[in-house]
């Protein structure tokens, strides 16, 4: 027996059909013998199967070194995005962030350094900042 996911072109209903084999399906489909259970229409064809993503259970777990490499890759990607899209303001970050927040400086993305305290203050003032791990480029 073979199972096909079928789809009625009349009412879009999708259902399963069992056939002795694929040739039997072809014959039945060709002669309009397959009926939609919803609308009894005979214009039924194989549904396009959704892409099937499955985790390979036999696949070895990634090693901690592989995970570290992947994490590093993601952080470097973030760094590149920030550098491409934001102005570097160095240790003036907190001041500049406040100016932008209060409209005294151009509204733009900036990056730079703050202390933990400054970051905390900015958050308290309702300024949207995010701390990201900044990996050195040298060993990338
Ligand atoms: Zn139908």
Indicate the topology:
Blueprint lengths: L1 E7 L5 E6 L2 H9 L13 E3 L17 H22 L1 E4 L2 H10 L7 E3 L3 H9 L16
Parallel strand pairs: 4-5
Antiparallel strand pairs: 1-2, 1-3
Summarize the structure.
The chain is α+β, with helices and mostly antiparallel strands.
Hetero groups: zinc ion
Distance between the termini: 54 Å
Q: Give the overall average pLDDT.
A: 87
Structural class: alpha+beta
Number-wise, the strands total: 5
- Helical content class: 25-40%
Would you kindly provide a written description of the structure presented here, covering whatever features stand out?
It contains 4 helices and 5 strands, in the order ββαβαβαβα. It is α+β, with helices and mostly antiparallel strands and 140 residues long. The strands form 2 sheets. A 3-stranded antiparallel sheet has the order 2-1-3. The protein has a two-stranded parallel sheet with strand order 4-5. Zinc ion binds at residues 8, 10-11, 13, 36, 38-39, 41. The site of zinc ion has 8 residues, from loops.
